[in-house]
């Protein structure tokens, strides 16, 4: 079976480095908020082209803490997309704000700026822009919209590690960027982990308090915070995996290029090509097919694993049926959710496996 992710196939040198990192932490006797976290915070902030990184427990907490650090809470509306992991919206709710869903663009599955404009009200305080599947697009338009309307921009970069546009990295365009280091991400830990990044020193200082019970110094709690600390073990392992990220990202792009040039089936549609090669890191390679379930079954018979990201848009989740949304509806999101399919695009794939996936896609007849 050609897997969506294959951690066992990663280079032995990387596994040895990760074991060495784990041993280093155990021998240090310091497991929470120590040197490993501080080093990785600086490393990842530098990769993102910003001044500050604040390690937290996971990507959802990174969004919540970013919003709370920006003063966003009860009475405020935050616009985002229904085509995202549930954590994006849950983070807005946990911050005390009200999520409002804008529709997506059919060609990219990213939030439509026209739909977002229709969602803006006097209560709108922020937009959480999700860099879905690893792509960033039209950032000038988004930053200009937010500046003109006095709206804060928070980037959900959970799938966009090292994506860049016009020399600027994902996470550097808005007031804050939120990253997940869940194991399947392009830069993944061996458990939950996350970070928010920013050029705003005051925001970073507040975020550092909020992640640690709202504590300023030991036993003093000027904020009502939460327990969301990136631990030393995950930080040390992430530091080792970061060394391999450029090479792994290049391989993802090579596979995506092969798919874009090789997939030739009128029943299978690839997403729009990126604005520039560096603007997409292909956390996921997604195709659309009106007969998605049949295509998924067909690929399974050819020993190709697939997933759906995401089969149920946020506004159709049982807990979100009454969520605010674009007054013109979310038809594009519903169409994408019914037709999208993610195919393997991980850096351990061999060229022969890529060829198998392409051949299987091209042989699909819909029957």
Automatic annotation (TrEMBL):
Question: What are the recorded GO MF terms, alphabetically?
Answer: transaminase activity
Family under the similarity heading? Belongs to the DegT/DnrJ/EryC1 family.
Specify the protein name: DegT/DnrJ/EryC1/StrS family aminotransferase
Organism encoding this protein: Methylomonas aurea
The family database entries (InterPro entries) matched by this protein are listed as: DegT/StrS_aminotransferase, PyrdxlP-dep_Trfase, PyrdxlP-dep_Trfase_major, PyrdxlP-dep_Trfase_small
Keywords in alphabetical order:
Aminotransferase, Pyridoxal phosphate, Transferase
